[in-house]
Amino acid sequence: MRFLLIEDNQALANAVIDRLCLDGHIVDHSSDLETAWDFTSTAEYDLILLDIMLPDGDGRTFLKKHRNAKSRTPVIVLTARSEVSDRVGILDLGADDYMIKPIDYSELEARCRAVLRRQTGQARNAINFGEVEFDSLAGSLKIKDKRVKLRTKELRLFEVFINSPDQIFPKSQLLDRLFPYEVEASENAIEVYVGRLRKHLSGSNVSITTVRGLGYKLEIL
């Protein structure tokens, strides 16, 4: 999945990025609000991690504008403020969750998973679709009695499909969700990973279908 981290503390940002990238996520980093707006105007994000005190303004201004724009992208606020009134104010502005600094990175990962589950209406990490059970935490597919461990890119690609079944995804959009800007990857890479996922799904009633001229979609046959 693709995350946007808005944080001006470079050491903290590096630690968060390293931790999330180990799980195969793509993380774009902005240290100020102006750059953050540039990112959100050119890319689609699954989750935003937002600091409050930034060099060019207050993160709550970003949050309020983000919600006023009717964006459904979930936001977790990272704040040093521990007062109840501050936390209540952050949630009332539209934050999906918050974490108080210093951050425990295992907890951050868990909160990211929880917020993303709520976003897709899931109560747990495992998602059932047709004859397939997908466990994002274990990184596996279960088809009938067979369980398949997914590689990192396969996992993140299937996450995109399973969170929006029957939606058509162009190759360019999938490329954007799987690779950071600085990595030169072609749409052929998407074809390779789709091919691998199709092999894993063989024997089930779930398929990644090619929609000629448009892209791919996950569906029950």
Quick overview:
The protein is 42% helix and 25% strand.
What does this structure look like?
The protein has about 220 residues and is α/β, with parallel strands linked by helices. It has two domains: about 1-120, Rossmann fold; about 125-220, Arc Repressor Mutant, subunit A, CATH 1.10.10. The chain is about 40% helix and about 25% strand. The protein is built from eight helices and 13 strands. Strands 2-1-3-6-7 form a five-stranded parallel β-sheet, with helices on both faces. β6 (about 75-80), α4 and β7 form a beta-alpha-beta unit. α6 crosses α8 (about 185-200) and α7 packs across α8. The longest helix is centred in the middle third of the chain and has 15 residues, at about 105-120. The chain is globular and about 55 Å long. The model has no long low-confidence stretch (mean pLDDT about 90).
Biggest sheet details: 5 strands, parallel
CATH architecture tag of the largest domain: 3-Layer(aba) Sandwich
- Discrete helix count: 8
Outline the low-pLDDT stretches. none
Residue share in helix: 40-55%
List the strand order in the largest sheet: 2-1-3-6-7
Order of helices and strands: EHEHEEEHEHEHEEEEHHHEE
**CA distance, first residue to last residue:** 26 Å
Integer tally of domains? 2
Top-tier CATH class of the largest domain = Alpha Beta
- Structural class, by secondary structure, is alpha/beta
The CATH topology assignment of the largest domain is Rossmann fold
CATH superfamily of the largest domain: Response regulator
Overall pLDDT, averaged?
Answer: 91
